[in-house]
Amino acid sequence: MFKFEKIFLDIIFKYKDKFFLLVISILGLFIRYQGIHFISWDMKTFLIPWYNVIDAKGGLHALGTQVGDYNILYQTFVALITYLHRNCVVMYKILSILFDYILAVSAGLLCMRLTKKNNSFIFSSIYSIVLFLPTVILNSSYWGQSDSIYTTFVILTLLFLFEEKYLLSFIMLGLGFSFKFQTIFIVPFIICYYVYKKRFSIMYFLASVGIFWLSGLPAYLNGRNLLAPFKIYANQTGTYKQMSISAPSFWILIGNDYKLLHLTAIILTVALCGIALYLIMSGKINLENATSYMAAAAWFTWTCPLFLPAMHERYTYLLDILLVILTFMDNKYLKYAAISILISIITNCASLFGTWHFAIQWCIIACVLAWVHFTYTLLNDNKNSNQEEIATEQS
């Protein structure tokens, strides 16, 4: 071996973590570039026309009226890119891709905090897996959707909540809501955590509401109603009159009669979350433990899109990220992550490319069975944990 080779390899070994992150980040950009010009049905039908309307109305001046169904903060971004006179398809995707990287960093930080392993291996592993999850790549670079944005803020919400930085946590929650209403999936868990911990006031939720309201400031300055952000989401709840929109939903097995079943679905979901709250209050689920904390958060974000009506296939995006993190905390959760991600890939590709590999009913059956077993695992883990605590106290 020549001397310069040894020097080169010594440098590589010394800074292996930084080199790995650099290479994996560049490869992440290359793989996303492959889909940057792909125009999905959603892009053609909704996003491009919305951009054209906002552009025709004068960019930021268009914020005085509602265009499309995204909330005001995202519309503000669309208004700003109209001044760049660039390909709007690419610009939409650049924002989402940027948040792919922020999401990967946030997930790595959360995993290190929960595992109490402040090492580069954990961070690099989570970072790379999240960055290269097929659903993450498809969502931003092919679809042009913004799920990585609200998911990033939910991950940061969970990070700061666990660290007892409550104000920061609820600010992140408000920012998540400012981009997508699907942030609501984590709220039942936060309510349960509030009841369990008894260390922060419910008034912190006002910080989230305040941040959400402030996100509409550019629209208020252009004449919009001060309640516009809230009205946008209120209108969204009545947009889709189907029990499932390509989602791995329990209701595909039951029927698609929205008028007859949608209230039943909402009541069932509330009941399931209420049962979980009762179990937490009864000490059957101990949220003090980091693994139980993350498993409970994942359970709620799985339960809501599985049982609520009018769910899209993209609404399990947050769940996939949480299950990846949970797997690194305890590898017995790998099977749930694998099933969830596989079903997400199938349902996402079905909507994006029009491909079905087998009957959707089998996906739903697998999803429901996995959810049932996940629920059992969550409860059984806490039972064993409580027994160990009792045995320790007696000894």
From TrEMBL:
Keywords: Membrane, Transmembrane, Transmembrane helix. The chain crosses the membrane at residues 20-41, 90-110, 122-142, 148-163, 170-196, 202-221, 260-281, 293-312, 333-353, 359-379. This is Hypothetical membrane protein.
